[in-house]
Amino acid sequence: MNLPPRVFLLGIGGTAMGNLALGLARRGVVVAGSDRGVYPPMSDLLAGEGIPVHPAGELGVLADWEDALFVVGNALSRGCPEVEWLLARPRIAFVSLPAFLGRWMLAASDNLVIAGTHGKSTTTGAAAYLLAQLGVEGAGHLVGGALADGSPALVLPAGEAVPCVVEGDEYDCAFFDKRPKFVHYRPTVLALTHLEFDHADLYRDLEEVRRAFRQGLAVVPPGGILLANGDDPELRSLLEVPWASTVTVGCGEGNDWILQREPLSYGQEIVLSPGSAVGGGEALRVKAALWGEANARNLALAVLGCRALLPDSLPAGTVLDLRGYRGLRRRQEVRVDAGSVVLVEDFGHHPSAFRETLRSLRERFPGRSVHAFVEPRSNTLVTCRFQAELAAVLAEAEAVTLAPLHREERLPPEERLDRGALLGSLAAAGVDAAAVDTPGGLTARFRAAVGKARDSRQTVVVVFSNGGFYGLLPEWCASLGAEAG
């Protein structure tokens, strides 16, 4: 794999772009980039590797990189000064991030690509962890988030014909390539977690999301393997793929692998029993530190994906100890356990993800009340698209605090999430619900929840946000840490 000698990344501060810069620098490539704002931890990581990061708009810097390959992040669009500078110089080569990965990371590998509306980052991280546990030398991976143990989210494969596991996002590639990212990723095995409507800024309806996933199925090679969550009816409807073998896993009896689990003090034990369609036989067993049915399914897909990629690595009857895999930052991440109050941060930004996290927390912390702080921030959640579903899901908590809609002015009133109607639905369900418009108001609700927990029932406070949540979490963690001390 001959990497380009010099690479400049436009939008280097993004998680995937920054991790690509780190991976390239560690392989001896001369790397630099620019962005409008790069913040910790990525800013610290890039500085630690000596990678120059220039402010966006400093076009004079780019002239020194005309011999480099430019990688263009999908946050940049026409009208951006860097984009216009690049397009005015047709001799300069540029690619999207997914195209770069497909050409220079995945072209010579056997690849496990993990896609789906939810769970793909956790599943990808688990598969990368398992490849390391199996002693697979030189394996590469790309995880679309920060791993909880601090290990690199992107590792380039060390040579050709080694396995790679990569997260296959359905979002678009760049302003000049509006296809889903996973069409570039050359899957030997394609694993699918879920299929639901999301990304309202990109897809108009569920049928457009289905079409995107069909594009992913179209690049599975002859003789490839399609592994899917067989409990998801939307995925079931896509599995008639004559050029690939199809394997399903789930709790339902109609799956090729039947998933059962037992919650335990450390997490859970997962049992994967081969059904009659795959000839029966001994089960695979997985010990895991991640909680809940959703994580059990994620880990099952990771295990069976690695087994499909490396058929001789996991014989029937194998018992896997994956308790060392701690998942990702901001995925059911316990920030502070202060006894009476546990503060959890979660990246959830879709009603289905909220549901799975709330149920997992019930299992992990039985008997405690749950107070959910929700920042409607994603391009889908700020709309009224999931108004009813959100009310039904959040009713599973005892208390809910709604933060302001992120950039609500972009949407006409009739298309926005109606916080008033949502509060009414939650109140009718007996939930202590409030909408708060300021960071100070959010902190007041948090302090009230802490006070109630001290006086009576122990509480789990879970913060759902795919953004920074107004920078409040460090302050809240510090206050609980002082109380715990």
* Gyration radius, rounded: 23 Å
CATH architecture of the largest domain: 3-Layer(aba) Sandwich
What is the number of independent domains?
A: 3
Fill in the CATH topology of the largest domain. Answer: UDP-N-acetylmuramoyl-L-alanine:D-glutamate ligase
Helix content: 25-40%
- Shape descriptor reads globular
Give a quick account of the main beta sheet: strands, pairing sense, barrel closure: 11 strands, mixed
Structural class: alpha/beta
**Average of the residue pLDDT scores:** 91
CATH superfamily heading of the largest domain: Mur-like, catalytic domain
- CATH top level assignment of the largest domain: Alpha Beta
Please count the beta strands (DSSP E, at least 2 residues each).
24
Count of discrete alpha- or pi-helical segments spanning 4 or more residues: 14
**Beta-strand content:** 15-25%
For the biggest β-sheet, the strand order reads 8-7-9-6-12-13-14-15-16-17-18
Distance between the termini: 52 Å
